[in-house]
Amino acid sequence: MPDKELLAHALNTWRKALDTLAEILAAEFSHAVRDAAIKRFEYNYELAWRTLRRFAQFEGETCDSPRQAFKTAFRLGWIPGEKPWLEMMNDRNLTVHTYHADLAQEVYERLFDHQRAFEEVYSVLASNLRKLGQDS
Predict the structure, then answer these.
(1) How confident is the model at residue 2 (pLDDT cuts 50, 70, 90)?
(2) Which of 92, 86, 83 is nearest to 111 (CA)?
(3) Of the candidates 9, 11, 8, 21, which has an alpha carbon nearest to the alpha carbon of residue 116?
(4) Residue 32 phi/psi, 5° resolution?
(5) Residue 41 CB partners (closer than 8 Å, separation 6+)
């Protein structure tokens, strides 16, 4: 079971990645920016579900996949709905095909919504961690 320091480390690592995603999404559009944004989305997605898994483990839950992590986070009230996260999971699976310009553009356009979802759950987890620190 992860301790509070591991949770804090996971959140800190993800915060840095979230900042890189925000930076690229704020950049003026070009194909290179689009491609970089998709790559940054990929590693933020991986950090998101793995961070959710760590927090779930702290609560005594087991999450061995992104789908399980998102369902558990929904059940625990960390995310307001599963649907955006399942759509995000679909987009993550599509990123392997972003050599198709139209598909890459479609995924890129949804990254702004995904970024908001990431930020929302990050805030919830950070708040939970602060509460854990107060309980010590």
Answers:
(1) low
(2) 92
(3) 21
(4) -65, -40
(5) 21, 91, 92, 95, 107, 111, 114
The residue written with tokens 């987890």 in the block is 125
Which residue ranges form the domains of the chain, and what is each CATH number?
A: 4-134 (1.20.120.330)
- Quote the pLDDT of residue 132: 87
Rounded CA-CA distance 23/15 in Å is 12
- Whole-model pTM over 0.90: yes
pLDDT exceeds 90 at position 29: yes
What does the H/E/C string look like for 8-74?
A: HHHHHHHHHHHHHHHHHHCCCCCHHHHHHHHHHHHHHHHHHHHHHHHHHHHCCCCCCCHHHHHHHHH
